[in-house]
Specification:
Order of helices and strands of chain A: HEEEEEHEHEHEHEEEHEHEEEHEH
Order of helices and strands of chain B: HHEEEEEEEEHH
Number of domains of chain B: 1
Oligomer: heterodimer
CATH class of the largest domain in chain A: Alpha Beta
Radius of gyration of chain A: 19 Å
Strand content of chain B: 25-35%
CATH superfamily of chain B: Jelly Rolls
CATH topology of chain B: Jelly Rolls
Strand order of the largest sheet of chain A: 11-9-8-7-12-13-16
Largest sheet of chain A: 7 strands, mixed
Shape of chain A: globular
CATH topology of the largest domain in chain A: Rossmann fold
Strand order of the largest sheet of chain B: 1-8-3-6
């Protein structure tokens, strides 16, 4: 009987559709409607750009990118914007409360391919969260890369995510950081304008650059085109896509995007793979 | 070495690669300008008689809203051109432009350049080719800002 029970537990543990129960260790409010949750209680291994399926028990499950440092396997960090029923319930979780966890899933940022290249990291709004693990890795292995440029766009100065970290990064001599906002009051001293305006001024060599983009899809389309126009190869422009992910392993088809499943084949794709699809209304 | 206006105009990114004859014509309408932080390059409603090739410093394009005070729509910096309304009737500024820090610029007399462009349509066409890209960029940017891509549905 005990053997059967053990086998049952082992089978459940191996089932990618069954969440494990973890606990919230810390909750930090970042900006309005956005919180960062730290989960502890295990060894968490993930690649920058991957996501987990998080469950708010009794409410539902949502795909959330990991936003923490891949070098810190004891703490799993997710940054969540409260926009729907599930994300609101997740964002409301407090330290000590249980959370369901499946993952990590998906194909992350091509950091190996980026070695030896200039790297442009371009984030819009909450898109900085899935890119932050890649930045941690890039900076931890700084010698492997050429110039590294972080360009960030937000709606307003109040919507700038990870502001303290951005300030710290801006102080580094081996990283170029530029930020802009779409709207601001007259007392704002920073840049105002769309994020594409930052690209032409950044210091990188398009012919040997790999770009990683994450943000609203419209923004990524414009940015990818701008980078390509400057001479960055389509194969080296990588975008993190967001679709309605449910199973996270390519079974259910909810996140189908033309010939690919975003959960299984992505969420990070080279622009060369998406170019014909991304501007199509029908998909 | 003293930098001539002509040399500065020629080297400014906005006029990069422009024919030397056109550079001379533009430079004939130009002078140096300097604005301290907080000083206005132009004000909404005023006659759009000049445009500015920014050499150093940043300027904000603003509009005043009674409820919110000054709202910044765009910031411009070295290498940018500040002021497009000199090109199109009724030649009136629709926004304020304010120096956010010390701004050094080349001020170009728009009325002077319009007269030269009427006399030499090739110069007029060159100006249209130079000024249309920033017009389109700013239109596109305004549309992006209008749809609020970073909002809840972004």
């Amino acid at each position: 009987m005990a053997l059967m029970a053990d086998a049952f537990v082992a089978a459940r543990a191996a089932d990618p559709m069954v969440p494990r129960v973890a606990r919230i260790a810390e909750r930090k409010r970042e900006i309005e409607d956005v919180v960062t949750l730290a989960i502890e209680g295990g060894a968490f291994d993930f690649a920058p750009g991957q996501f987990n399926m998080l469950t708010a028990f009794g409410v539902g499950e949502a795909a959330i990118s990991v936003s923490g440092d891949p070098a810190n396997g004891a703490r799993l960090i997710h940054t969540i914007r409260a926009v729907g029923a599930v994300s609101r319930a997740l964002a409301e979780l407090r330290p000590g409360e249980p959370i369901g966890l499946r993952g990590p899933f998906g194909r992350g940022w091509p950091l190996l391919e980026a070695e030896g290249h200039d790297v442009v990291v371009l984030a819009g709004g909450l898109g900085l969260a899935p890119l932050r693990p890649a930045l941690y890795r890039l900076l931890a292995e700084r010698e492997k890369y050429g110039r590294i440029v972080l360009l960030f766009g937000a709606r307003s100065p109040q919507d700038i995510l990870f502001r303290d970290e951005l300030e710290a990064w801006r102080g580094r001599l081996d990283l170029e950081v530029e930020a802009t906002v779409d709207h601001a009051r007259g007392d704002w001293r920073g840049n105002v304008g769309v994020v594409t305006t930052l690209i032409a001024r950044a210091s990188f060599d398009p012919a040997r650059t790999l770009a990683m983009l994450c943000g609203p899809e419209i923004m990524m389309r414009f940015v990818a085109n701008a980078l390509h126009d400057m001479g960055v190869a389509e194969e080296r422009i990588h975008l993190s896509m967001e679709r309605n992910m449910k199973c996270a392993i390519g079974w259910c088809g909810h996140c189908q995007f033309g010939p690919v499943f975003v959960c299984r084949d992505g969420p990070v794709f080279p622009y060369s793979q998406l170019r014909g699809l991304i501007a199509k209304k029908e998909i | 070495m003293i930098e001539t206006i002509e040399h500065i105009v020629k080297e400014h990114p906005f006029f990069a690669g422009m024919d030397a004859g056109f550079v001379a014509l533009v430079s004939g309408c130009a002078k140096n300008a300097r604005f301290e932080a907080g000083q206005y390059l132009f004000r909404e409603g005023d006659s759009a008689d000049w445009f500015y090739l920014l050499r150093n410093g940043r300027a904000a394009i603003e509009i005043r809203d009674p409820a919110r005070g000054a709202v910044t729509l765009q910031t411009l910096r070295e290498g940018d051109v500040c002021g497009l309304s000199w090109l199109v009737p009724p030649y009136r500024w629709t926004y304020d432009a304010r120096a956010l820090e010390l701004v050094r610029a080349i001020a170009v007399d728009g009325a002077c350049l319009r007269r030269k462009s009427e006399a030499d349509p090739r110069l007029g066409y060159e100006m249209m080719k130079r000024f249309t890209p920033p017009l389109l960029e700013r239109l596109q940017a305004a549309r992006m800002q209008m749809i609020d891509v970073y909002g809840a549905h972004g």
